[in-house]
Amino acid sequence: MRAFRPSFKRVVLALALWAGANAAAVADAPQRVVSMNLCTDQLAMLLAAPGQLISVSHLASDPLSSSMVDEAAAYPVNRGAAEQVFLMRPDLVLAGTYTAQASVDLLRGLGVTVVQVPPAESLADVARQMRQVGEALGRVAEGEAMAAAFEAATAQYPQAEAPATAAFYYPNGYTAGSGTLADEVLNLTGFRNIGADAGMTGGGILPLERLVIAQPQIIITSRPYPGASRSEEILVHPALRAVQDAAGKARMTDADWVCGTPHLLRAIAAMAEARAILAPAP
Amino acid sequence: MKGQVLWVFMTALVAALFAASLLVGPAGLGLAESLRALFTGQGDAVVLVMRDIRLPRAILGLLVGASLGLAGAAMQGFLRNPLAEPGLIGVSATAALGAVLALQTGVAALFALALPLSALAGAALSVVLILLLAGPRGGALALILAGIAISALAGAATSLVLNLSPNPFAAMEIVFWMMGSLADRSMTHVWLGAPFILGGMALLLSTGRGLDALTLGEDVAQTMGLNMNRLRLSIVFGTAAAIGAAVAVAGAVGFVGLVVPHLMRPLVGARPSRLLPAAALGGAAMVLAADVAVRVIAPDTDLKLGVLTALVGAPFFLHLIWRMRREEA
Questions:
Q1: Which of the listed residues A125, A226, B99, B238 has the most CB atoms within 10 Å of its CB?
Q2: Which residues of A touch B (CB under 8 A)?
Q3: Domains contained in chain A, CATH given
């Protein structure tokens, strides 16, 4: 997109205005949008008008976190530092709510409009964010269409009668409890989350002993990063392996699980498929 | 305490703490249930917990503690310096650097023994450096200063390597390598570490007679037929093997080697040949107790072992310095 010169963009804009279609929205819409959060990166790439988005964060090109590595290759990358983002002369910055708060404050101080999108903690949050980003980009109709499609896709899963037990298990024994997007995906696809059963709200550490005793029917782990770490050794612990062998097929979360984007539907479909293979819970 | 009574008491203490290490855990299993699972292998998940999670943890606590206590006593005897301790003089730090290098370069993934061997090499390097910089005639100050320099250098190099790792979790593990933990170790780690730890400990225990002679001074010892070179090599390789392997599987647990020999000396006397096995038992008891305590204090978080040993050890270290100052004055 670097090839687009401002003059050319003005021509495009003029053409759009001349076309007369939702002229007001286009005139109000930001023209130089920078996203500095993995999840807003992906929503913006999906929703923005051609040329509207000028940079995404470096995480968008990390295959372990991003579902849109190929698309992200077309955009200049930022590392979320205020200085770098400001020099891109954005008229809108999309950011998360947890990370880079100092950068966000600095950008606001410099007069840049920043829209912060909180991490999705439920399926309802996902649809809400699609609309929020669509609105911020002046692409209300596109955002609404994406959210409606997402809601329709998740509504087709029937209420499970006998849920099977499942647990997430990540490096350092980290798991997702109730009140998380991952937990809701499990519930939607006919599973009961061991993490939530253990009384956990949000993310937390579930000692390996307790996971082994709970004997979930399916354990969902994460893909290891390159290079070694002691944190990830727990994922190849013989005791965990034994429970996984008893459970049958092991599953791994991937980039589709990370953000509330339409790619999450792929993760949901995969879990529904895994549930269909399992025998009903005793 | 005299003669046999002390040994019986120490052995019973270690056995009791070993049992406690097997019976304490976040899963909250019943006593009968856990013992039945451990010995008969009945009860699916409980067997997994007892044999694959708690047993390796208890065994490693025993081995790591024994090697730390023994190495501390041997170094104090050889250097004739009350402040010698693998953690304080940089042996654990360089062992950790060796282990981290083996893990991050991927060598440890190619062949499993690379991890303990590389940690052993790191530990050996610093023991040799310490002997060169602050040998038997170097005095306490030279020893501690050399130890601080080696620890700082090895710690910085370890942090650098972990920060440069492509793995986002690696940088978070700097604290593990500096503080040590036995959480979620498996039998793999036992098989990897035990041969080196036991071999190193056997070598160190064999130095008892030599260290006894050395208490009379180097010249007298040599006229008594002590082979200083052999003794030196045994200390270097024994310490490197025992500490290197212990750090490779459990990280650097500090202060055990300092505190335990000082606690045992009033009980068994200062003669190294009696102190060495007593320090091994004492070290095992201290690490097992610390490892039970971390699980009782914070069952759901991985509180590091070194936190507890330093809470006990660091004030003790200050007390030793205070006493030495008064003696010098």
A1: B99
A2: 171-173, 204-210, 212-213, 215, 225-234, 237-239, 242-243
A3: 6-153 (3.40.50.1980), 164-277 (3.40.50.1980)
